[in-house]
Write a structure and sequence with these properties.
Blueprint (H helix, E strand, L loop, with lengths): L2 H7 L6 H6 L2 H6 L2 H21 L6 H8 L7 H11 L2 H12 L13 H37 L4 E6 L2 E7 H25 L13 H6 L4 H14 L16 H30 L2 E2 L19 H16 L1 H8 L10 H26 L3 E2 L1 H15 L1 H10 L4 H22 L5 H7 L10 H4 L9 H17 L3 H6 L8
Antiparallel strand pairs: 1-2, 3-4
């Protein structure tokens, strides 16, 4: 890029969604080139179908259109739009300029929504096709992590206070379970997208009925043919000028739900990083803080949380748009959708790529986890100790009181003196508990406090994760590790 061009590029706002974060494939999916070549393909599908059904359109005209699908003069299009204040007509004229023979039949019988809405449906469908393998890959990476760590005991938290024990792998399965719900939701949203098709100005197909001189069957066949050429199996049988904006709501709602899942996962990782139990990848030359060189901030997880919040909020746009459309259509949807639809898919793409990068390099610190478990386990084991004493002939109520007193003393050391939890040492020194001194090590084995967690992980991966990923196996084999741009 020349110096002057570079200066001009950096003199205007660029969305960081594309300039910093998004994958090349998703950035292209919402590019001007993808949009306007799709418009031209749709015009070509329409012309070919109209010709096949008897309208006077020549092979030469069709060939001319097919040969110029990507020959777009963007400067001319911008000039035409400034002149006509209409983006579709600007591109009709621009296409016609490079297809002079086909120019008279471009957009024949159609309305702007024919290219606008159908392209949006194609782009959202393709967007889901980009996202789904990425989500499957994240699930696979986390499942591998869960299986590897399924037997490592760690503290579980309720109210962010130590509760009982779980395992590192079992906690990861909670993350995966949410992502599996997102996988199903995205699959359903993708499968439910239909084609607007060839419906005319207000959805009545009146213009096409006129073109085919009242032949109802030809109009239906035209709709079917174009739909098939565009790669769809179904159309929305009824619509106004546009397809129902509830479709946008459904699509962005599942993306917002994905955002909620990723935010929860990455919040957990940030908290665990604070405990020093778990860390996201930290590169050799990475700088955590400009002022504090020792810091290892969880910047990837923080980025996911930041962008997930944006994604969650974006669903408000189609909700408001759908609720405020008047009659068959009002144009106050257009400018909003130009922003909200691309940003939702771009943001979803970014958080999945970032989460994949995180999941491929998670670092576990077993010794830190063990130390934290040992700080809390004596309190958690009190019921087991009471039961062992009762079996050895002790009185349950008396034993409970002994444990209560010793626990309070140990708690005072931890909270007021900053010392370690010495409850076990106090029990070992107590003559009252002498009958079970030899059992204390087994009673305090962390592995006996995790219940069925390791088996739950194995069964969950076998019965839910693996079957859900089966259709993505080829894609999973193709995908390597994600390298983030920044």
């Amino acid at each position: 890029m020349a110096g002057g061009e570079m200066s001009a590029e950096f003199m205007k706002y660029r969305s960081p969604l594309v300039s910093r974060y998004a994958s090349p494939e998703m950035a292209f999916n919402f590019s001007e080139m993808k949009k306007f070549t799709t418009w031209r393909r749709l015009w070509t599908y329409l012309a070919k179908s109209e010709k096949a059904l008897g309208l006077t359109i020549t092979d030469e005209q069709i060939s001319e259109m097919e040969n110029n699908l990507e020959n777009i003069n963007f400067e001319l299009a911008a000039s035409e739009e400034k002149k006509y204040r209409h983006d579709v007509m600007a591109h009709v004229h621009t296409f016609g300029a490079c297809c002079p023979k086909a120019s008279p039949i471009i957009h024949l019988g159609a309305t702007s929504a024919y290219v606008g809405d159908n392209t949006d449906l194609i782009v959202m469908r393709d967007g889901f096709h980009i996202l789904l393998p990425k989500l499957a890959r994240v699930i696979k990476r986390l499942a591998d992590f869960a299986d590897k760590q399924k037997s490592l005991p760690c503290l579980a938290y309720t109210h962010l206070q130590p509760a009982q024990l779980t395992t590192v792998g079992k906690r990861a399965c909670l993350w995966i379970q949410d992502l599996l719900m997102d996988l199903r939701n995205l699959e359903n949203a993708s499968d439910n997208i239909r084609f607007r098709g060839v419906k005319g100005t207000t959805g009545t197909q009146a213009s096409f009925l006129s073109l085919f001189e009242g032949d109802d069957e030809k109009v239906e066949e035209l709709d079917r043919m174009v739909t098939e050429m565009a790669g769809f199996k179904q159309t929305y049988m009824v619509c106004g000028q546009t397809y129902s904006r509830k479709v946008d709501v459904d699509c962005l709602n599942v993306l917002a739900s994905l955002g909620a899942s990723v935010h929860k996962i990455c919040t957990d990782i940030r908290l665990l990083a604070n405990f020093k139990e778990l860390e996201e990848p930290f590169e050799k030359d990475q700088i955590g803080s400009s002022a504090m060189p020792y810091k290892r901030n969880p910047m990837r997880s923080e980025r996911c949380c930041a962008l997930s919040r944006h994604l969650i909020c974006l669903v408000q746009d189609p909700l408001m748009t759908a609720s405020t459309q008047w009659m068959e259509r009002t144009l106050d949807d257009s400018a909003n959708r130009r922003i909200s639809l691309p940003e939702a898919f771009l943001t979803a793409d970014i958080i999945l790529s970032t989460l994949q990068n995180i999941s491929e390099g998670l670092v576990v610190y077993p010794k830190v986890i063990e130390r934290r478990v040992n700080q809390e386990l004596p309190f958690m084991a009190s019921e087991n100790i009471i039961m062992a004493m009762v079996k050895a002939g002790g009185d349950r109520q008396e034993c409970h009181e002994q444990i209560r007193v010793l626990s309070q003393e140990a708690g005072r050391v931890v909270k007021q003196e900053g010392g370690d939890n010495d409850l076990v040492d106090r029990i070992r020194k107590s003559d009252y508990f002498k009958p079970i001194h030899s059992q204390l090590d087994s009673l305090l084995d962390p592995g006996t406090f995790t219940g069925r967690a390791p088996r739950q992980v194995t069964k969950f991966i076998e019965m839910e994760v693996t079957p859900s990923l089966q259709k993505y196996m080829d894609k999973l084999k193709e995908g390597g590790k994600v390298e983030l741009q920044v």
